[in-house]
Amino acid sequence: MKKTVCFLAILSLVAIIDFGECLNCYTCSSMAEPDCLDPVKHNMATHECQTFYSPGVAKQDSNPVLNCVKIVAKVGDTELLTRGCTLVIDNVDICANMRGENKAIINCSLCDTNGCNA
């Protein structure tokens, strides 16, 4: 009887432990999907950020840190909005780098909770 109670206690504990979740972000571009301008209003789904490996950018990590990103850029007379996932790289401000390289970037923001790049 003690073994059964102990087993059930352990099973209950395992059932409530959070083993980690992947980050879910909105991933779209207003150029291809006009609903991307307001994904919440249009009931767009978030997507799980996938881990990736890019040689020369970051070492392969079994548990990389990911952020959601929202970028507004001006191309000609048109403002474009892009939402997606990005890898967090130590000591690199991706938004600052993008603004420095491309004067078309109006706004770039990073966040780290599900659906935060709405």
TrEMBL record:
Any Pfam family: QVR
Statement: the UniProt record of this protein carries the keyword Signal: yes
Keyword Lipoprotein: yes
GO-annotated cellular components: side of membrane
Chief subcellular location: membrane
Membrane topology: Lipid-anchor; GPI-anchor
Domain of life: Eukaryota
GO biological process terms on file: regulation of synaptic transmission, cholinergic; sleep
Signal peptide from the UniProt entry: 1-22
Keyword terms, alphabetized: Glycoprotein, GPI-anchor, Lipoprotein, Membrane, Signal, Transmembrane, Transmembrane helix
Compartment list: Membrane
PANTHER family per UniProt: ATILLA, ISOFORM B-RELATED-RELATED (PTHR33562), IP04187P (PTHR33562:SF15)
Protein name: Protein sleepless
